[in-house]
């Protein structure tokens, strides 16, 4: 079965559904076609394999699938955007060859730790919302990182002392970081009114911070 980027992912034929109400048929990624430097497949991908013929693509979108492991991407060295939103991934790994990657989307998975990003020196956007991450770490080498989304994770702090916000202090090395979203984390709910000012002190480069107020309504704070 092949996937055409000209058709919507909710098309029964393109999604891999044999008919309504049945399990999606497994997708053979070796049959996925490239279009304008992009390739994507939805709903029926279970394993990352058979991608060697897509070595020239710059964007790969495999969101809303059943992928459990990031693997077999070594030939996709031209990738600048990788989207694996809403899969079943538990660990960030297998990205060593993607040295040109600028955007990494791993939201809505089962990731517990930020790791495996050592080779991604060109990364600018990192999206990890709705996972199970408890600590901000292993990002200090990402000198080009400008956008970080960690909302709805499990980031925590000990109490109200700035020095104890060790997880956030780790972001001070990211001198280009301008947009940060940690709404919906325990770290925000612990000190909703002081949160913005603490982050301004820890990460001076920030321009936009998304946080929760006491009514649980998200609001963007503009930092001038």
UniProtKB/TrEMBL annotation:
Region annotated Disordered, chain positions: 1-22
Keywords associated with the record: Cell projection, Cilium, Leucine-rich repeat, Repeat
PROSITE patterns found in the cross-reference section: LRR
Compartment annotation: Cell projection, Cilium
Pfam families in UniProt: LRR_4
Xref: InterPro entries: Cilia_flagella_integrity, Leu-rich_rpt, Leu-rich_rpt_4, LRR_dom_sf
One cellular-component annotation, GO: cilium
Keyword Repeat: yes
Family: Belongs to the DNAAF1 family.
Function: Cilium-specific protein required for cilia structures.
Name assigned to this protein: Dynein axonemal assembly factor 1 homolog
Native source organism of the sequence: Ceutorhynchus assimilis
């Amino acid at each position: 079965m092949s996937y055409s980027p000209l058709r919507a992912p909710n098309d029964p034929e393109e999604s891999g559904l044999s008919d309504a109400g049945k399990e999606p048929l497994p997708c053979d990624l070796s049959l996925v076609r490239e279009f304008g430097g992009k390739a994507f497949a939805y709903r029926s991908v279970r394993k990352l394999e058979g991608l060697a013929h897509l070595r020239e693509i710059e964007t790969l979108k495999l969101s809303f699938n059943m992928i459990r492991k990031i693997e077999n991407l070594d030939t996709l060295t031209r990738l600048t955007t990788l989207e694996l939103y809403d899969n079943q991934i538990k660990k960030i790994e297998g990205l060593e060859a993607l040295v040109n990657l600028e955007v990494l989307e791993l939201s809505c998975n089962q990731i517990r730790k930020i790791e495996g990003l050592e080779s991604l020196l060109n990364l600018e956007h990192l999206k990890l919302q709705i996972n199970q991450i408890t600590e901000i770490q292993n990002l200090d080498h990402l000198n080009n990182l400008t956008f970080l989304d960690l909302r709805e994770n499990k980031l925590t702090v000990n109490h109200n002392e700035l020095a104890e916000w060790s997880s956030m202090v780790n972001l001070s090395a990211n001198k280009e970081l301008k947009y940060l979203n940690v709404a919906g984390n325990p770290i925000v709910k612990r000190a909703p009114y002081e949160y913005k000012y603490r982050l301004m002190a820890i990460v001076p480069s920030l321009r936009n911070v998304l946080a929760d107020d006491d009514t649980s309504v998200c609001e963007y704070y503009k930092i001038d």
